[in-house]
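Attaching the record inline, Q. Sequence:
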Amino acid sequence: MPHRILIIDDEERMRWVLCKALEQESYEAEAAGDGIEGLKMLDKHSIDLVLLDMRLPIMDGMEVLKRIKELYPSLPVIIITAYGSIEMAVAAVKAGATDYITKPFDIDELVIQIKKALDVHRLVDEVEFLRSELSQRYQDMLLSSKSPCMQEVYELVRRIADSDATVLLTGESGTGKEVIARTIHYSSRRADKPFVAINCAAVPDNLLESELFGYEKGAFTGAVARKAGRFEVADGGTVFLDEIGEMSMNMQAKLLRVLQERSFEHLGGNDVISVDVRIIAATNKDLQYAMKSGYFREDLYYRLSVIPINLPPLRERKEDIPDLALYFVNKFDKRKAIKGISKQAMDILRLYSWPGNIRELENAIERAVIICDTNAIQPAHLPISMQTPKKESSVLDIDIPDEGISMEALEMQLIKKALDKTGGNQTKAAKLLGITRSALIYRMQHGIT
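Structure, as predicted:
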């Protein structure tokens, strides 16, 4: 369907010339001789762009522009102005006009401006549509969980979404911390602004500062041009700092200043840049333990945890597994050939302990969808580790004396026994203890006094 363009100009010959030129470019053209007639035509027709002359009888171009922007805020308007009226055109752009062109002008130049304005408008509409879809998707999530513990989380999300308070999300890996962060963002008044995420563990410490705060040309080898950091890009929106527990003490101090002042300088720059952002942080670490061990700043912790939200592991919300599993089936089954999950397969999903939480469930269902050759997922389509129930771990029989027991000392004894049993192999020892190798090393480094 061709774009329809409205020309508002008091010169009849100019209207005729523009209409013919636009029709040759496969546009539909409507014309009005003054602002009042033009506003009536906007009400009557579906217009994609307006060409507006600044000098009009009855109602001048600036007043018409203001009325258009009040009634149709996103409608592109290109100003036509006489040579020598550039200041008026600039004022019009500040008032919401998309662009301007001065008389006399080349028709080809005008056509290029029109195409550019329509392309930008289309992209803006697409972005708004996608943001609306995302917002609805995350709003729907607030109603999807059956487990009481997640209902409590979602109720808190509803209550705090429109505040600017900093949020600290905690929980095991794979419990959906980023999903909750996005839910908060898309449920807030910042939903039409950027959501910018960065994994603090994935960026080397010597690069994290420039990633977060940006840099000036020449700030370091390879800095060939000025670059905005994540905080600058997110202005007006939300910054999500994932794996905040992996941030070095040096970077923690710099982040603390930004939290306090909402301003920073580019690496290699002196100008202070102020931003309006909400900060949501997440970690699977025990930050209070890290504080006591001297690896996380206490002042930063209390700045981040204005609103702490702990996400329960999937094994504690098993009533949500059927709905989550079916959601992932619909997500990955592009052919829509799979009608559901068999009772036997669903029973396996319910009984499994899910150490990798929702992320592990998602991966398991993706695999099942790929290899499924029936209209329902069967036990054989699930990973072997899920099909074969693990033997229950033996329970240690430990007597607790009246004077109490040191958990730290007990933990170190278990680590020592696991290392002795595996001949010092940290990977095997971590497996025996049911933790990751990195978690074992962390406990070895920070637990020994």
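The domain at 316-387 is CATH 1.10.8.60 (Helicase, Ruva Protein; domain 3). Residues 394 and 432 are 12 Å apart (CA to CA).

More tomorrow.
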